[in-house]
Amino acid sequence: MKLSFLGATQTVTGSKYLLEHNNKKIMVDCGLFQGFKELRLRNWAPLPIKPSEIDAILLTHAHIDHSGYIPVLVKKGFKGKVYCTEATFDLCSILLPDSGYLQEEETRRANKYGYSKHSPAKPLYGQQDAIKALEFFEPMKLNTPKQLGENFNFNLRRSGHILGASFIEVSFNDRVIVFSGDLGRDNDPVIRAPVHIKHADYLVIESTYGDRLHPRTDPHDEIAEVITSTIGKGGTLVLPAFAVGRTQSLLCYIYELKQAGIIPDVRVFLDSPMATNATNLLYHHLAEHRLSKEKCEDVCSSVTYTKTVEESKALAHQPMPSIIISASGMATGGRVLHHLKSHIGDSRNTILFTGFQAGGTRGDRLLKGEKEIKIHGEMWPVRARIECLSNTSAHADYEEILTWLGHFKNPPRKVFVTHGEIKAAASMKGKIIEKFGWKVITPDYLQTVKLN
Q1: Contact between 210 and 396 (Cβ < 8 Å)
Q2: Strands, E, within 245-388: which ranges?
Q3: CA distance 35 to 388
Q4: Strand 81-85 vs strand 137-140: parallel, antiparallel, or unpaired?
């Protein structure tokens, strides 16, 4: 068995791993690079393997940094199956076409206003490319082993990150390699906790928060303070939120704060077709989360959904204070950019980020204090209050990862730390060695290792 690291090495984006065993070539995750330009350029570079030679893709979950490159593979000749959970397929059916649409819209604007260096600018893929890619998906249930070849099979186990998220457990010649994907948390308000893995000969573990601890504060308190102070000034609260996972948690927190009378009954707008569709999936996958059917209905009915572009544009002229939740979570695209342009220049307003911001994204730059931000080719002054919630992440921090690793009955032969920026990955590596004494490697981009 050979394992190649084609993404998510010393960065949190572009997750791609290639397993080669006998005559089989299997890709685990197939994500887009996001953030810094030098990372985004990798999306356009050819892979070290022809897509037509890849037999299958095993997908941990639907987030674009794990799934968003699949339409590119299909465009370039991939003919195999994409295996994932049923909820992951339902989410990819929303996220991938939206990703293609956003790319088409961005290139349309770039060509119209001439702010691209390319003439004409072209999308990596479009909406129809993404819809075509969905034909290659084969959803399956958790804990249902599937054979890929002789002495070569895999299983999906719940990882607790978002709806449908899973660890991937690959078995070959009496050896086991586990890919964590994104590891969730035991105390997530919506998604059920990750299951415990007790054995792996090789482990690929994420390290998004490998150098940090989430504060042990109650997110309700942080959210309440920001809402009451912003509304008290007559301002609007804009929350760039990941459409899948974070949005649903935020809706739950805000609903509970209103029910308890801690915040005023201010109107909440969910301005993201993708987030709206993802929220509706809670009804179809009740076994995946902690909410009862009744609470799902209560939370979802407490929000105003903007269904048209006109309704979205009208939010810029809301006379009353309000809360606007819109994608994307790192402010890299989508409707939230229009809300930033409308609200970021007013000191009464607050822009509240709700999770990890990859280096180079607008969210990262705003949190670092930039006084002007570029949106759609223009510079916009930053006068609004900029904040980030500290304890709503759907990623485990280093202590939670160590606790999860503590359930292993025997040490893995090797642990590969990925999906973390350089400092975070190095810190996670050191903490695993210090606590367990295991052999840990932080692989380089395009590195290949042999698994005996």
Answers
A1: no
A2: 267-270, 304-305, 322-326, 350-353, 372-375, 378-381, 385-388
A3: 18
A4: parallel
Residues 305 and 187 in one domain: no
Number of C-beta neighbours around residue 44 at 10 A = 10
Over residues 35-49, the pLDDT tens digits come to: 888 999 999 999 999
Nearest residue to 419 (alpha-carbon basis) of 237, 182, 167: 182
How many other CB atoms sit within 10 Å of the CB of residue 55? 17
The label of the residue with tokens 């350029």 reads 41
Alpha carbons 55 and 115: distance in angstroms, whole number? 39
pLDDT in tens, 64-108: 999 999 999 999 999 999 999 999 999 999 999 989 998 998 899
Same domain, 444 and 328: no
* Residue 327, domain CATH: 3.40.50.10890
User: What pLDDT was estimated at residue 427?
Assistant: 98
Do residues 127 and 107 touch, judged by C-beta distance below 8 A?
no
Residue 117: predicted pLDDT: 74
Q: Which helix (H) or strand (E) holds 295?
A: helix 293-301
**CA–CA dist 305, 315 (Å, integer):** 11
What's residue 226's pLDDT? 96
Does 181 lie in the same domain as 46?
yes
Residues 346 and 415 both lie in one domain: no
Full domain range(s) for residue 286: 219-388
User: pLDDT-derived band of residue 121, with 50, 70 and 90 as boundaries?
Assistant: confident
Cβ atoms of residues 71 and 129 within 8 Å: yes
What single-letter amino acid sits at 430?
G
Q: How many CB atoms lie within 10 A of CB 152?
A: 17
* Shared domain check, 295 and 191: no
> Measured between alpha carbons, how far is residue 245 from residues 38, 121, 274, 348 in Å?
28, 32, 12, 28
Which tens digit of pLDDT belongs to each residue from 323-339? 999 988 889 888 999 99
C-beta of residue 214 within 8 angstroms of C-beta of residue 222: no
Is pTM, for the whole model, over 0.70? yes
- Burial classification of residue 435, based on how many CB atoms lie within 10 Å of its CB (0-12 exposed, 13-18 middle, 19 or more buried): exposed
Report yes or no: 12 and 208 within 8 Å, Cβ to Cβ.
Answer: yes
Alpha helix ranges (H) inside 114-233: 127-133, 219-232
- Give the pLDDT score at 356: 81
Domain boundary among 335, 366, 388: 388
> Could you tell me the two tokens for 355?
């999770």
Question: Are both 362 and 440 inside the same structural domain?
Answer: no
Q: Give pLDDT, residue 178.
A: 98
